[in-house]
């Protein structure tokens, strides 16, 4: 169970501690932040409300630890990452329990998230050894006007202190996707978990602690965003920020100055369906892409753009599958579970009411109990409805009927977001042409959008983000190139 066994030291009374200098500590503030269970809508856990002075101490420890860590052999860093991965998988049950209670993620999916995170860490260790173990050797005479009098040796070096801020919907996996690359590259890591998901993150951090990483190298600081949020992201000790979330990322990017940024800020992923598509495949992917984890995914199908000639048949097939979705508490492995907060539920309801007022066809009766919203497919949605453009982050999927491929591409590209999109067709030539025309970071052909596998590049255009994620891309992003140039007194050529 959470907070017991090897996790016993991370809690005192009913408040979980924060982690710094290899120790679990209580905040000097004497205050805590409540974490509300989305299902019961009562306080489930409490975490420390850390102060700005504690942030300063964490940053100083991280800076000192990083200098020593950068001297640690690459194989040793990888060895410790593999150890952390094994410990994380071993203790998947209590961490998954936290995910169920903090973010109402179905029990089976919660376990999967933890196991996937362990796999990510191990892959990261192996990939890091490969790409960081290589450098480049350049010679000067390849550029016009130069003799071979200069040898340039390049390698990748760490940035310093990486600030990682994951979102509520994958708090463990998206924290690990930042921690692993940062550490294998020789950086230190300061984690600021989301409020909903913070306790799962604290349990995950204990697994790194048990693996034996140096003191100060990894820190996890909890607290109110209003008190330490800006202070963290604008701290002079931060050398890189990796953030996954929503509009907050835009504010961070405007204040970050010269600090390298890796950001994924959401999407309005469009699903374009042509006349020749396999409609059974499309329907299955709309269910999987639009309703899994109650639609609370950046890569969820958030608008279906279907050719008018096959729209009736597709809507009928999707409706039949929606009727089979199990709605209820996450402990029962239901398909549709409560959304993360009352404010989220209210926002989703507002989108539904707007669509109702403007004439959308409700394929199911709108139903809500607390934070639990029943799955809803909206047909005959028009561009003047909010749901056509706004990201619901809930179990509601709009269908817009189109009369041409160009109309579908236009709607997709008119969005402020550009994370992922998908196209369903049996014509690979059309699929490639549409993919090239869609202004999104990734296009899936004949499958719903998805972030994984975790070593694939993952990036967004426009308001969907800055930079690219995926294990290799993250390692490269969290390093910079260092060059050493050897100047020779006379040209030197290898003669073979």
TrEMBL record:
Reaction it catalyzes: D-glyceraldehyde 3-phosphate + NADP(+) + H2O = (2R)-3-phosphoglycerate + NADPH + 2 H(+)
Assigned protein family: Belongs to the aldehyde dehydrogenase family.
EC number: 1.2.1.9
Gene3D superfamilies: Aldehyde Dehydrogenase, Chain A, domain 1, Aldehyde Dehydrogenase, Chain A, domain 2
Source organism per UniProt: Lactuca virosa
Gene Ontology cellular-component terms listed: cytoplasm
Subcellular location, record wording: Cytoplasm
Record domain Aldehyde dehydrogenase: where: 24-483
GO MF term (any one): glyceraldehyde-3-phosphate dehydrogenase (NADP+) (non-phosphorylating) activity
Pfam short name (any one): Aldedh
Protein name per the record: NADP-dependent glyceraldehyde-3-phosphate dehydrogenase
Record InterPro entries: Ald_DH/histidinol_DH (IPR016161), Ald_DH_C (IPR016163), Ald_DH_CS_CYS (IPR016160), Ald_DH_CS_GLU (IPR029510), Ald_DH_N (IPR016162), Aldehyde_DH_dom (IPR015590), ALDH-related_metabolic_enz (IPR051020)
